[in-house]
Amino acid sequence: MKVTTWSVPLIIIVMIVLSVTTSRLFAIPSLTIDFIKPEQTTGLSTRVTTLIVEGVKCVDTARAASNAVAFKKGVVRFTAFASYNRVEITYEPTLISPADIKAAFEGPIFDPETGEFLFNQFKVRSIDGLASP
Amino acid sequence: MQWIRTIFQLGFLVATVATGFRYAMGWTMTTIETYCPFGGLETALSLLTQKQFACATGERNLALFIGLLVLTVLTKKSFCGWICPVGTLSEWFSALGKKIFNKRRRDNDSNVLHALEPPRHADRVLRLLRLPVLVTILYFTFKTGELIFRGYDPYYIIFSFHGHDVFYWSYIILVVILLGIILFPMAWCRYLCPLGVALWPFSRIGRLRLVRVEAHCSDCHACEIACPHAIEITGSEQVKSGDCTLCFECLDACPTEHALELRLT
Fold first, then answer.
1. ipTM of the assembly?
2. Which end of chain B has fewer surrounding CB within 10 Å, N or C?
3. Over 80: is that where the pLDDT of A39 sits?
4. Which residues of B touch A (CB under 8 A)?
5. Is A23 a domain residue?
6. What's the whole-model pTM score?
């Protein structure tokens, strides 16, 4: 069947729109770390805060960012979606607040591998959809 | 049709430059890698076996790669001829090479060759080089979980604006590649591009194809001379080659009306 050459640019546009739209429908974490074993969280009234963190751009940087909250009391789980610079922190609100978590990311971070503190590695751009001051 | 294709190519080129520049200036967190469909292929194996993405790749890369496979099955390698910014630069540098080395010559089989273009039989063998390139990249990316070939990738070297993993030798590699394209038309796409060879089998079965209508064809070979990918057209009824990008250069070069037609096969 003969078709017009215009069909090629039209199909290209449709496929780009479909691909970009579809990519928003699913999200697979680049890194998930449970600081408290899931079975130990029963009875805890945990909450989840979502942060856009500048500097979290791959699995390695996500792992480095996890060190910021690894030793914080009340942090249950760290989940990073590196391609969206997004970090989700599951926390116990009676022990830690989103403001504390933000401060942890922007403060000095202890790197257990080197035994050194890292400074100015990450900057929180937003917390739960609100631009971070 | 060439003007609309040029608009597409320029549009994607400008968008890529803008994304790379904005990231380099710290105005955005979106990198040029976010829109690279090859990243989807690189990360697919990690996702299947380790249930996590490799390095900086993510959902968008995967979705773009899957979309690209569907696009290729429909419209052959139109991505290379209409979207890919490296393909666009390749075309421009090849055109420059053809202007510099203006004289054409013929190989033993009477095929018209541009510049220092290798004879067709050597060209066919050289195209196989893309396969070890693809296998090497996929193997080491999977093994290390890192995009360790950034420093060798012309897309990343050009559009990341000196992104991390780009070193002085990366620019030497880039210059060699660009010179190669000037001397041997479309050398990167034909002989080295790993995405090109990954798409090849899907392009081979591409449903939209150029069909040669023998009754109208005058066997002047103008289509083959115009084809940037040196695909043999006059010897067959359909352009089945997995390297056809549906750029329609052949269609525009054809002096006879209706000798070449786009058909859904």
1. 0.86
2. C
3. no
4. 1, 4-5, 8, 29, 31, 34, 47, 51-64, 66-68, 70-71, 74-75, 78-79, 82-83, 145-146, 208, 246, 248, 251, 261-264
5. no
6. 0.84
